[in-house]
Amino acid sequence: MRTLCHLLALALLALCHACEVQPERPFRAEFEGAAIWQSRNDVAVPNDTGSRIDLLDLTGTGPEFGARLAFDYNPGADHGLRAVAAPLTINGTGNLDQPVSFQGQNFAAGETNAKYKFNTYRLTYRYRYYNEGPWQLHVGATGLIRDAEIKLEQPGVSASETNVGFVPLLHLEASYRFDEHWHAGAEFDGLAGGPGRLLELALRVNYDIDDQWTVTGGYRTLEGGADTDSVYAFGWLHFGLLAVSYRF
């Protein structure tokens, strides 16, 4: 925690220095909508005595609709902050093919309602360390707060597993400009090690309508989970995204 505070303090000092030469439009707001598919969602709660459950049998693979909001502040040419709110909840009803144990409750084979929630809230600091020709490269760090829940429900029985926690992530970003209007980019937030991991990669193609409005299309994938004594949960999600942003 002390190291994290030192890093945040250094980032704030760098931002204050960057404010001496502020871009003409340092703020950017973006709204993104996405169609979401799941290719994996395996859970067991608790890990040692709970049944291994494939939530895709209950929620389906999609598509579902999701949205996120992002807000950027770039006080200087090389420094930037980004805040992102990315709520995600998937509900569904399917059939368990055998009795299962989840969070100490027994569920019979048959129709079962399921809820999968993975809301994330992020704050990213990034530094542009390369800017030559059409290429720009950024490196930084992201602090992520997750608000997660898995819930099963049948008539007369219900159980849920909730988890709220903080995850520090490495942030990398690369962009390439084709011409005045078109540019493409890749963004990565990730951490792996110990009992879990979280890896997110986005590939985006952007079109600048003018110096304020941009439309974006692309693909994002989010994979990760945890394998601890209390819970086993790993998922893999895919997003087909469309976004619009405004600089001011």
Walk me through the structure.
The chain is mainly β. It has a single domain, classed as OMPT-like (Lipocalin, Beta Barrel), CATH 2.40.128.90. It contains two helices and 14 strands. Strands 1-3-4-8-9-10-11-12-13-14 form a ten-stranded antiparallel barrel. Strands 6-7 form a two-stranded antiparallel ribbon. Strand 13 and strand 14 (232-247) form a beta hairpin. It is elongated.
Please summarize what this structure is:
This protein has about 250 residues and is mainly beta. Helix content is about 10%, strand content about 70%. The strands form two sheets. The chain has a ten-stranded antiparallel barrel with strand order 1-3-4-8-9-10-11-12-13-14. Strands 6-7 form a two-stranded antiparallel sheet.
What's the structural blueprint in terms of helices and strands?
Blueprint lengths: L1 H17 L8 E18 L8 E2 L1 H4 L4 E10 L5 E8 L2 E8 L3 E3 L2 E3 L2 E23 L2 E20 L2 E21 L4 E12 L2 E13 L4 E15 L4 E16 L1
Antiparallel strand pairs: 1-2, 1-3, 1-14, 3-4, 4-8, 5-8, 6-7, 8-9, 9-10, 10-11, 11-12, 12-13, 13-14
Describe the largest sheet.
10 strands, antiparallel, barrel
Helix and strand sequence: HEEHEEEEEEEEEEEE
Structural class: mainly beta
Shape: elongated
Strand content: over 45%
Number of DSSP strand runs: 14
Could you name the CATH topology? Lipocalin
Number of helices: 2
Number of domains: 1
Query: CATH class, anyone?
Result: Mainly Beta
Distance between the first and last residues' Cα: 35 Å
Give the radius of gyration.
Answer: 21 Å
Mean pLDDT: 92
| CATH architectural designation | Beta Barrel
CATH superfamily annotation: OMPT-like
Strand order of the largest sheet: 1-3-4-8-9-10-11-12-13-14
Low-confidence stretches: none
